[in-house]
Give the backbone structure.
Amino acid sequence: MEWLTKMNEALAYIEENLEGTVDHRRAAQIACCSLTRFQRMFTFLTDVTVGEYVRCRRMTLAARELRDTEIKIIDLAAKYGYDSPEAFTRAFRAFHGIAPTAARKGGCIREYPPLSLEITVREGSTMLGEKPLVRMEELSGRRVVVFTVNCPEPETRAWNLMREWAVRNLRDYEARRYIGYAPGGHHPDGPEETAHAYCAMMILHGDEGNEENFFGARVADAPRGVFLVGDVALNEYFEDGTIDIGLSMKNSSMTVYECMVNMGGYEMDFDGRNYLEEHVFQKQWFTSGHPEEILPEYKFWLPIRKVNP
């Protein structure tokens, strides 16, 4: 996975410059992304900010030098970017729980090892360290409320119909699960202005799907089968600075595909099936007078099947 290789190269750059200046923008360039995207991805992947990671690594190296060399604390402070020995001592004590002088005398120090991002497969899940990168989900026998439209920019129209219906009829609309798909693909015959079909769906529970209508909305069978589901990183932008959802979705779909390949034993299954887009809406999206300004989170659902042995 190229993006994973680039992130590891950025981590290597940070490690090489802990005794000098760690330029966050340079690290982002190495990772081939914007500074904002790099900071967000770094925190998502490691559960710490870039600045916190740099501080932890510097404090680890500083403690080793105190223990193994005769370097003066004032020189150590300057080496790791602190303006004074007092500032260094405060940071050292906050991290290790003891003063630098105690560490030099053999006191217990804390170790924060360098990070390296690695994909592993564990119990059918693809993991990045201890974080699940994708998960499997099966839809079987589920029913959905569905709003299908065929027009230019049908996604906006379909989800607005869903939003208006949900707010009018449900109390728990923000806790529901919403998935959508374009039966013939997004913009299959040309530019975005071209009309095409799109289905916005809400998964029903229990006996809610027993009738053909639910609070006046059409009920249908949900798409069936096994899917590999991964988060969509909204990190691609148009020239005007707005998020390019389509390209972000495409790039994330490649990550999900690569995870499937790494897992082994599965292949894509587009035989009468489509990929799905799960929309995770904030409450404000339902209640705001300008829902277009509130971007949901997205998850990409890749249809897969077991490979015959």
About this structure: The mean pLDDT is 86.
